[in-house]
Design a protein that fits this description.
The protein is mostly beta strands and 256 residues long. It has three helices and 13 strands, in the order αββββββαβββββαββ. Strand 12 and strand 13 form a beta hairpin.
Length: 256
Amino acid sequence: MTPIIQRPTVGRSPHPPGDQPMFKRLTLSLLTLAALQVAPSLLMAQEAVVTKAAPITYIATGVDLRKCAFPFCGGYFVKAVNQPLTQCADGTWKKACHAVVLDTKALGWTDEQQSAFASPFGQGQALVQGQLATGEVQGIKTPVLTVASAWQGQALSKSTGVFYAVRSTGIVCITTPCPSLAATRLNSRATPINPDLDLSRTGASDAQIEAAGQALATTGILTAGSLVPVYSTDYTGKTRRGTRLVASEFYLPAKP
């Protein structure tokens, strides 16, 4: 059964005791990576050779528009979500790291698909899970971001808050709170939480929200947002406190 995302009730606070939800809410998590806007970087991606490492979720903070020869310039500046600093390909820690090449060979994408993903990634409207490492492009050692998975923002709204990965636990309850969703903070070893999910604040269409509901049971979704307390009354009349993840943006597997 597909969970239903709660729509806000006009004129009512989401927090007061005794407020019993009328709908089930999706809990989504997120983590996100951006795409290349510089055509040469896309074309050179297949020449990159990097070492293996544990995937990290990145988002682009901008494209590299500096005026110098490729591959010394070009590509993107990226950062690990939920972290103040990111470890770059050379081992240093910075607020944002340079990635000349976005290597999507593992996804099996064509050049056209890479180009279609490039614009939203460079604008910070997509997330990628992968690794930053030193690769070799045109015989020159350069920072490369290899992509294990790519995620496209749906509402194309500004992502604020904490990034989570969210998926269904398969648990069905007759009352709330219910651990039907598990949200894991991206780039963290924190224990997963079981919030409800509200996607209505993102500005996404009903079709996009429905697609997110379907994805929860399969690939899961990534989301950015804030946790707020919610209260409900069970069948015994007892007030129970739960948590809701109010999303600012959510991400589905990219299909350029």
